[in-house]
Amino acid sequence: xxxxxxxxxxxxxxxxxxxxxxxxxxxxxxxxxxxxxxxxxxxxxxxxxxxxxxxxxxxxxxxxxxxxxxxxxxxxxxxxxxxxxxxxxxxxxxxxxxxxxxxxxxxxxxxxxxxxxxxxxxxxxxxxxxxxxxxxxxxxxxxxxxxxxxxxxxxxxxxxxxxxxxxxxxxxxxxxxxxxxxxxxxxxxxxxxxxxxxxxxxxxxxxxxxxxxxxxxxxxxxxxxxxxxxxxxxxxxxxxxxxxxxxxxxxxxxxxxxxxxxxxxxxxxxxxxxxxxxxxxxxxxxxxxxxxxxxxxxxxxxxxxxxxxxxxxxxxxxxxxxxxxxxxxxxxxx
Length: 334
Prior knowledge:
By secondary structure, the chain is α/β, with parallel strands linked by helices. Helix content is about 45%, strand content about 10%.
């Protein structure tokens, strides 16, 4: 049970700001496909973060992305976020970002919510959010800005600027250097009416518990540091997590959620020890392997992964061979 302040209701000023954004969007001819509160309710279970396939010349492989999405959507995931970190968002141009968004929205066809990542700096963040909104996404995942550890006032202004760019529900992604205090998270929640959720990418359970206790149910809480963190996240009451394994074995991702939700620790531990943890050991060997390993697994499984873009690096030949052998144990989940 989470003890904290009941902050689920928006202030009068917050409701007015939300209404203004909705009116502006309607005036521009953009359809509001999903209200922030509705999106929040749908984020229960496994959120998939698809890889962005590239061809040998490192150009986008949108046909490959569509193929991967069709396979993914056979399974009961609760949302898709594309592109984001696993989708190499930082390597994409704004035009490529939009192409990935459009392909994803077209393939998903409203079956589950589609969100997209944005960030970098204020003008680019707003541009990516607006064009994705026009293309039909249901929510925005905000990455930290380019400048590390700025003043708190600047951070709040940065995220509020992204939130104000569209009327969509916003999720803030705490990753890398951005590990705010509970007080700062509360200030963000107060300043941003359409902030609906918090994605933890720090894997610092102690800090996350403090933040959740401080804010209570004002935000929806998402475990976002990796599939290997499912036991830890679910032990403190979280019931939504972001999965990169869903790129290859969404059946396994969903099973991890089910076992952790139902408290079946023995079965969960078995899957973690046999499949998930060994994969994360490989992913930890070199910077960027959290993407490279997943793309290699997709290629081995007959999906479309392709190479990564610099500065990320592909797996070495001996690591590919190890993964080919390891994946024999994954067959029941593919």
